[in-house]
Hints:
By secondary structure, the chain is mainly α. It has helices at 2-14, 35-38, 61-71, 88-134, 137-279; strands at 40-41, 78-79. It has a domain at 2-131. The protein has five helices and two strands, in the order ααβαβαα. Helix 1 (2-14) crosses helix 3 (61-71). It is elongated, with a radius of gyration of 76 Å.
Amino acid sequence: MGVLNSLARLFGGSKTPGGANGSTEEHAPNNGHTVDDRIVAPLPEHPVAVDVYTEDEDVIGDADMVQADLETPDAAPLVLTATTPKNRQELLNELRKNYTEVLGLVRKVDTHLDEQSHRADRLLELAERSSRQMDILPEIAEQNRRVADALTDLVELTRDARTRNEAATERLTKTAVQQLETAQRQTSALQNVQAAMHRSSEASAEMAQSMGGFGQTLGEMAGSTRDLGDTIAAMRETDAEREAELARLVSNSQKWLVAAVVFSGLIAVGALALVLNNVL
């Protein structure tokens, strides 16, 4: 509040020089003080600090300067040089402006005090809550002890599990080595089987080739047999024709033989008749 009092004194002193005609000499004081005595701001006995926000720096810049001067131990009394305004309207405008700034500063200080009160209430609430939470510290310690015991048991179980895992890993390693050796033997056997199958496939190919040649030979033999059958059939046809020709020739021969016998008989009969005629 020291800053506010200083500002009030400053603004109160500024009203004195502004008379009706703006002259400081026409309104001389009746108590024997000069103008310079009236505009000297009295220093407070103890400096008073006021908490303000950073956004108030543009408003209370002059007040900070006054507070700094007041807090200086060896500072000389604050003397303000009175300036004579040009007219009454300018003085009123200046007073109105200063009054507005002071009201804004007072409102912000009041808001800040309210916030500080709210913060104090909040701190009291937190303190009460902390006092209640202090009661459960033994329970938390007991829980931590149980957690530590559980962690110890977990470490023991982990150590046992690691031992069992190492033994199991060793057994698995031996089994894997045996399986690898078995797989190698199986691979060797499969390679031998594959080689035998390859040789068998080659033999099968050769056999297939031989069977192909044999089939071709059988085909040629079948062709030869077919040609032989055709030849035999042709020979049979030729024999049939020859037999038919022989039968025809025999038939013709028989006919000519009968004719010759008949003709010979006729000749013999004729000759016999002639002989008989001659004899007679």
